[in-house]
What does this fold into?
Amino acid sequence: MTARAQHATPGSAYAEALAGVPPFSGLRITGAERPTATGFAGLTLFVTTEQPDGTERKFVVKAAPWDTRVYPEPRIAEQYELLRVLGRDTDVPVPAVHHCEPSARLLGGPFFVMDLIPGQVPSDFPSYHRQGWIAELPAEDRARLWWASMDAMSQVHRVDARRLGLGFVAPPDGGPPGTTQQLDYYERHMEFFGCAGDPVLSSALSWLRAHLPAEPGPPGLLWGDARLGNIVYGEDLRPAVLLDWEMTGLGPAEVDLGWFLWMDRFLSEGIGAGRLAGLPGHEETVQRYGELIGRPLAPLPYYEILAGFRFALVTSRVERIVLAARVMPPGVPLALHANAKAQLGRALARITGSS
It folds into this structure.
């Protein structure tokens, strides 16, 4: 079954496909649904089961169908192993994982199964800056949520990646871990993302190459897609779990912080929305984050341009997938990618002094 056809499979067929897969063996699957508020990187299923004692238990299945993959390699096995190690050996809040299936036979691509953790997740579309439960919070609670998110992310950056043997999260076809490795990786895959020859992306890559900073220390673990929308929050507004590790790798903590700040800016300034009152500002966040990880941070503008470059690559790939699926009329640009590229262009102009 092709990935696109598999995406159209009703819940009952998903349940039938998963029936013999651990941890579902011996449990009755009572529901298998695709949530509407998930990202673009593959297939997500919420699976509800009934245990032998009649109690209900819920799981998440994360799959990477080949035809609609956002990243060059699905790296499902690496995500599974990373979450397994983090859950076993660290305090990083991650969901428990139960099974990794390397075959594409059942869901059109490899997948893994993890616990579904209840809680609230900030919305990207529509942006949490415009509406939703964060917009409805008092300003002081928004600040509390922001700092709790920084605390949780800093736990990732305090992980001893070498001691835990996490070298497998680095891109599979690169050199020594670090920022240069990331640039090499994305440059090799410009055609995959649909950005080969794009003037804005090419200019950003050239600038990033020319202004590469010294690495601030040994490469550590990176979350990758670090943002509010990938955090499940409990009733106390603290992160219950950090989600979506498709972009994980090794490098300086500044890579994740730059991405976090860039994505927050994209979901406000980048789409013409005002930023919510109460959320701490850029300088305050950078200063506090250095305190959390125990060292001064390297200048963030470089890592924010890096974030904008990577994000525009991802949105370009998403646009290609959406157009191929005929979700939008041919020739109609996807606002997501147009906005991402425009924000990157403005940031480059500011940093280079060009008009």
